[in-house]
Amino acid sequence: MLYRVGAFVISLVLIGLVVVLSGASPITVIGRMLSGAFGTADQIGRVVATLSPLLLCAAGLVYTFNAGLYNLGVEGQITFGAIAATLVLRLLHPEGASASLAPPPLTIALAIVAGGIGGVLWGLLAGALHVYGRISEIFAGLGLNFAATGIAIYLIFGPWKRPGVASLSGTQPFDESLWLGTFGQTEATPVALILGLIALAITIVVMRNTYFGLRLRAVGKNLRASYVLGVPARRQLLSAFFICGLFAGVAGALQVVGVFHRLIPNISSNLGFLGLLVVMLVNFDPRWILPVAFFFSALNIGSLQLPLSLGLESSLSGVIQGLLVLFALIGRGLAQRYGRKLEH
Amino acid sequence: MKVELRHIHKHFGAVHANNDVSLTVEAGTIHGLLGENGAGKSTLVKILSGFITRDSGEVVLDGRTAHIQSPADALRYGIGMLHQDPLDFPPLTAIENFMAGSLAMRAILNPRAAERTFRALCAQFNFDIDPQARVSDLTVGERQQLEIVRLLANGVGTLILDEPTTGISASQKTLLFEALRKLAGEGKSIIFVSHKLEDVEELCDCVTVMRRGQVVGELDLRADGLRQTEGKWPRDQHFSIAARIVEMMFGKELAMPVKPPTHQDEVILSVEGLVLRSDRLEMRIEHLAVQRGEVIGVAGLEGSGQQLFLMACAGLERPAAGTIRLADRDLTHKPYRDFLQAGVCYVPADRLRDGLISGLTIQEHVALRTSNRRLFINRAAATAEAERAIATFNIRGRPDTLVERLSGGNQQRTQLALMPSPLNVLLMEHPTRGLDIESTLWVWQQLIARCKQGTAIVFASSDLDEIVQYSDRVMVFSGGRVSPPIAASELTADSLGQMIGGRF
Questions:
Q1: Which of A153, A324, B132, B475 has the fewest CB atoms within 10 Å around its CB?
Q2: C-alpha distances out from residue A191 to A3, A43, A103, A198, B356, Å
Q3: What is the pLDDT of residues B333-387, one digit of tens each?
Q4: In B90-112, which positions are buried (b, 16+ CB within 10 angstroms) versus exposed (e)?
Q5: What is the C-alpha separation between B79 and B14, in angstroms, rounded?
């Protein structure tokens, strides 16, 4: 405990130092960030809009982390989910058509389901490479991230390009009937938030109260021994990739129907990597994901105001998140290494 | 170089790995260091080569006290060690490895000079290594040769070899032995750590045997009456030496059998023409039929294939040929879960690596074992189940104790508590290794109770007393050969020793 609190304090001091070095007072920065995140309904809406997919990704990553897997491919799983969702939207509502072939709510629902399937495909691909091809899931995932982004860019500049001119800003926006409903005039959509919270709730229950969760942790902690004890290890590993891909793919679909209303090259907005940080910070325990994910979302949105009001870099939020996670991991490592010695 | 180790002590926690060990190796001799796994021989040579530091004792080289704190120190004193798994850099080429391990590290490399030295040394010993070959493409034997050449280039006067003949081909072994004899002829001292009797007999001038951290005997193989003819011992001589060494390794007197008869007539496990292969050995078991309630002890020097055999019977290792049947079911090449369903259980020796999951509690282990088609864990039931296991098996821990916090004995009790019931065949490695006498008796009480219920047990142990006390029949593994099972009551220390030495 001492090491963890100590590491947390050190990270706060370092963050303060970074802020001071960049020529601002920490108090002002905190104030501006708070007002930047919660000053107006619009800003709160953007925090929630970031939080929803982040919850989905973080919940999915709980499974892979607990199975002992570093699923860095979560970004690609979001992207491929978004591509699959876009595909369904384009099929059911061809460009130029005045109405979709199915009622809009059904179209949106199908797009979200398609997103989940796309994410599962991309996740299982990484899983198969890892389980059957014996490739590190880190490299398999990173490689597939590039592949997914490549496919997205190809589609945006090729078959799905805007009429007239292809552009990095993405495909032609969808008809407004296919946009997810929002809270008032904000960017936040209730459907995304509800899906995120449901995914998180399911994850908490699965990890704490089911045999599946227990077997997943067993495999993650000692693959060989759990196999000898009769746990079907391969199936557990592939299930973890399946679920993580599912949640990430749904997040990708929500980015399409709820936030950008089109496919853009960076559709994942690095939410997958942010999810990795969140889950590492909470030590793979899903019960703490909601507050931490909320804090990270607020930090991301709040820091957007910094360049305007204080002339600071908005990437400061990345520095803060990075330092917090880094020192949390260092603290945990020290506690493991020296904390045990004290007990003996 | 003459090497003397005087009164070396080394503790690892509660284990006294080296207890007042003294060893003298004369210059120009090849000295064998024999002992079972855990006897302390590796600890001793690692102290000499600077990999671990001793608690007390003295290292004297050519009459002068040496201060060795690290492998680099040892190398400066002229002591080089060849590890069982070569300590080299697989992605680099042979010549790069040769240069990287050089004591005379300079800022600028001279590959051409290095290659000249390398080729000269290789030629001297008839080693054939391409300097530009990647080490990852070399065989274990070639990597060994590379290490020897590298150490010699650093001017070692003492060469330590840890189990050098595992995993190398027969011709490489011949080459290695010739090189070692040549080095000894040049006045260097060689320490040859092994548990293979035939290698020690063929090569060594002297043998020191260790058991449980102590030196239990020395044998001068050059002494009168033990004369070699053309590098080979006469057949009878061979067995008398083997028997003497085995006697030193395991002790003179065997315990008396204590196990009550529990076997029933029905055959539960049968093996026909089983061929098992690993990268280190190949063995064949013609026929074995184990009856319900019977205990088969598997004896032999460690690494003679006992683990391979048990794992094959458990469905964790695929046999190259032959059949494994359980009662009347053919389980050959069936997946592991079929073996589990058929009531086969494997209890490994390395508890925290293969048997239990660090980071999970006793209760979680119990739940993992009982996990069935249900979705949700019933916590109250799981706790009750764990508490019952703790009470029955007398485990010093609570349901929420992490298994890695348990002592070795309590981990073993936990492993026993996790055994499913009913059980047809139980395969165990070292059932009581590291346990005190009371726990040992208790464990066997539990196992015999299982036998009475009809479970057949096949267990491997390096404790010959345990083998004779608790087995109905005993199989001996020796260098890839397996003896037919023999009734434990017919065994004597002498006959068992000769079998372990390879005579059957």
A1: B132
A2: 40, 18, 17, 10, 43
A3: 999 989 999 999 999 988 888 999 999 999 999 988 876 667 888 888 889 989 9
A4: eeebbbbbbbebeeeeeeeeeee
A5: 29
d(CA A324, CA A102): 47
Res A343: pLDDT: 42
Q: Model ipTM?
A: 0.85
Which of B346, B376, B402, B428 has the highest number of chain A CBs within 10 A, making it the mutation to test binding with A? B376
Q: Are A335 and A3 in contact (CB under 8 A)?
A: yes
Mutate to test the interface with A, among B347, B362, B368, B370 (most CBs of A within 10 A): B368
Pairing assessment for the beta strands B481-482 and B486-487 based on DSSP bridges: unpaired
Asked if the structure places residue B348 within a domain, the reply is no
Counting the structural domains of chain A, the total is 1
Contact list, B355 vs chain A (CB under 8 Å): 225, 228-229
Domain containing residue B367? 357-419
Is there a domain that residue A203 lies in?
yes
For residue A212, which residues of chain B lie inside 8 Å, CB to CB? 375
Residue A2's contacts (CB-CB under 8 Å, 6 or more residues apart) are: A335, A339
Statement to judge: residues B331 and B387 lie in one domain: no
Assign residue A268 the CATH number of its domain.
1.10.3470
Which residues in chain B (407-426) have CB-CB distances under 8 A to chain A?
418
Test B376 with A211 for CB contact under 8 angstroms: yes
B426 and B482 both lie in a single domain: yes
Counting one residue from chain A and one from chain B, the pairs whose CB atoms sit within 8 A come to 67
Domain edge (last residue) among B250, B276, B300:
B250
User: If pLDDT is split at 50, 70 and 90, which confidence band does B225 have?
Assistant: very low
Q: Which two tokens stand for residue A338?
A: 């020296």
**Is A320 part of a structural domain of the chain?**
no
A337 belongs to a structural domain: no
Q: Where residue B229 falls among pLDDT bands split at 50, 70, 90?
A: very low
Select from B355, B360, B374 the Cβ nearest to the Cβ of A221.
B360
Q: Which two tokens stand for residue A335?
A: 């506690």
pLDDT of residue B122: 92
User: Which domain does A183 fall in, by range?
Assistant: 45-303
> What is the distance between the alpha carbons of residues A261 and A257, in angstroms, rounded to a whole number?
5
Distance from CA of B427 to the nearest CA of A (A): 12
B8: phi then psi, degrees, rounded to nearest 5: -80, 130
Domains contained in chain B, number: 3
In a domain, A336, yes or no: no
pLDDT digits (tens, 9 = 90+) for A164-200: 777 778 888 888 888 888 888 888 899 999 999 999 9
Tell me the whole-structure pTM to 2 decimals: 0.79
